Please model this.
Amino acid sequence: MNKLSIVVPVYNEKDLVLDVLKKVKEIKIEGKDVEIIVVDDCSTDGTREILKEHGSEYADKILYHDVNQGKGAALKTGFSEITGDVAIVQDADFEYDPMEIPSVVEPIFSGEADVCYGSRFLNNEYKGYKANQMANKVLTDLSNFMTGLKVPDMETCYKAFKADFIKNIDIKEKRFGFEPEITAKMSKSNLIYTEVPISYYPRSKEEGKKIKLKDGFRALYCIAKYR
Model:
């Protein structure tokens, strides 16, 4: 396995998107090629225009949705275009540090695992708003109960997969229901799972965080639906 694909879903991140892509472009993994695939989910704040003007300096492919559909839909589009052996998700903000991507994908490249999640709860004190932390724990515990897994952080952005798995999964959830959906489908695939500790730098709704209360209820539905 010689190539990593990084899929970056983007929606209304005009102030951060290029800085994030610059950082992602700096990722180096010895002996591995890295491709960056950006999917703009019909941004309306100028992000699309920024990507059209400057995005090709940092990304290998930029795909554009004509209608806003959600993170899950953007990831489905991005995963369909990957050419690497391993794929990982990077959000278009700095809640997660792109420089930690090599540590998340290493267990897959080394043959230790087929799937690796970057957990905000391993060897780190979770940083975040109390309500979000509590919701995350409830959803993760319910997901683990349904799947039989012992995932410490089901809702984490940093999920890395062998490409032949993620390319062949029919992702149904268009928004943040992707997280419990893919975790449930992974649990049924007899894949070797592991996790590594990562950092987390949460932002508020005012700073651009997009997940909403309705996404929490949808996650509950998805945990039951895809169990």
Q: What stands out?
A: The longest helix spans residues 130-147. The beta strands are 3-10, 33-40, 61-64, 86-89, 115-119, 159-162, 193-197. The CA atoms of residues 17 and 92 lie 5 Å apart. The helical segments are 17-25, 47-54, 71-79, 101-109, 130-147, 163-166, 178-187, 213-225.
